[in-house]
Amino acid sequence: MGLEFIGYIGNHNASETTPRSGPVIDRVHIETVAKAHELAGFDRALLAFHSWSPDCLQIGQHAASVTEKLGIFVAQRPGFTAPTLAARQFATLDALYPGRFSLNVITGGDHAELVQDGNTVADKDERYARTNEFLDILRAEWTSEKPFDYHGKYYQVERGFSLVKPGKPIDIFIAGASEAAIDTAGRHADVFALWAEDYASVRGQLEKVRAATTKYGRPAPEFSLSLRPIIAETEKLAWEKAEYILEKARKLQDATGFARNGAPPNEGSRRLVNLATKGSRHDKYLWTGIAELTGARGNSTSLVGTPDQVAEGLLDYWDIGVQKFLIRGFDPIIDAIEYGREILPRVRALVAQRGERRSAA
């Protein structure tokens, strides 16, 4: 798979600095942001899953229909859809849009949100145990040439079988920072996804996942890092832009729904908040201002600087072992276009230079 850039397709124009003003499902926005990512050179774009939001699988199919090659990266939570059905849904989409759909497995760390969908398994380790069974069955549906049985604690399947199979393996991304998440990644992940932390912490997480895959006799997955680049013509202007974004987000917290509400329920957010307590700036260009403000509600840490500096920061993560970067801005369409012009080509050129030097050596 190698170096990739992943963007984000929301159901409407909104962010920490932009309250939604249109319909919940804004077709014009969905189509525009999908096309913007494709034209900007992104490889895939994520569609998120929430217990209160439109069905991202259907939104993803629409985004695929208005683009030609953009990968559609769809989040799903085990426990809501039967794994046999989920497998056939993704295999069907792969038949309609060959090679373009991938799966982001989100087990879920916020029990209060999970129960909105009737998911009453409160223990996180149990939820990850269920995720493991879900993925066992998913892969069996995709690969078995004859009916199979599966008898687990959470799922029982008798003579499971799917006539439709993916043309090639569908990438499975697994996200999470807890020990249970890392163990699950060791068993199943093609790609392990994490939020941007300081270099040492990212390096430590990658080492844990590699050890987990070794335990299960699997090759190490690739790694994806999520962050929010903030760029400007000069470093001074970039930091001024970051402070402007922070102040705007602070004023609009109630309107956007990003108000901080108690301690974060999931390990990944707790890690980011803990990092923010040590200061807002880390390593060369990492900034935790939005993470501290919102309680690390999702992808919330940034690289701040000129396009060259942010590209350099991304290359540093590449050198640690990250191959994929999920980047999105606070102004979804405009930032996607700017990233395509200013960041993607710089990082691709730097990675190519790394490869040439390594080949020469």
SSE arrangement:
Blueprint (H helix, E strand, L loop, with lengths): L3 E5 L18 H14 L3 E4 L8 H10 L5 E6 L6 H14 L4 E5 L5 H4 L9 H20 L4 E4 L4 E5 L11 E4 L3 H10 L2 E5 L3 H17 L6 E6 L2 E2 L3 H17 L1 H4 L10 H11 L3 E2 L3 E2 L1 H6 L7 E4 L1 H14 L3 E4 L4 H11 L1 H17 L1
Parallel strand pairs: 1-2, 1-14, 2-3, 3-4, 4-7, 7-8, 8-9, 9-14, 10-13
Antiparallel strand pairs: 5-6, 11-12, 12-13
CATH architecture descriptor: Alpha-Beta Barrel
Radius of gyration: 20 Å
Mean pLDDT: 94
Query: Major sheet, described briefly?
Result: 8 strands, parallel, barrel
Q: Write down the oligomeric state.
A: single chain
> Helices and strands: which structural class?
alpha/beta
Number of strands: 14
Domain count: the total is: 1
Which percent band covers the strand fraction? 15-25%
Strand order of the largest sheet: 1-2-3-4-7-8-9-14
Q: Output the helix-strand order.
A: EHEHEHEHHEEEHEHEEHHHEEHEHEHH
Helix content: 40-55%
Unreliable segments (pLDDT under 50, ≥5 consecutive)? none
